[in-house]
Specification:
Layout lengths: L7 H14 L4 H13 L3 H15 L14
Helix pairs in contact: 1-2, 2-3
């Protein structure tokens, strides 16, 4: 809900405990990426999106050309 109304920091505080409980849930990583991007924290956003991809597509290796940071 917080992310839908632009309260990005509050949304992050709500997503992080969920991530601890369900670390294989790719949607949480994806949503955290959106929050960090909205806060202009591109490096954290990229790391979250990369994790989201890994969790949702474990059989596909991420190419070395994909940076860990933006």
């Amino acid at each position: 809900i917080h992310s839908k109304i632009g309260k990005w920091t509050s949304a992050i505080k709500e997503y992080e405990p969920q991530l601890a409980l369900t670390p294989d849930e790719s949607d949480i990583y994806r949503n955290l990426g959106y929050c960090y991007a909205a806060l202009r924290q591109q490096d954290k956003a990229a790391a979250m999106w990369k994790q989201a991809f890994k969790k949702s597509h474990p059989q596909i290796p991420i190419p070395a050309a994909v940076p860990d940071r933006l």
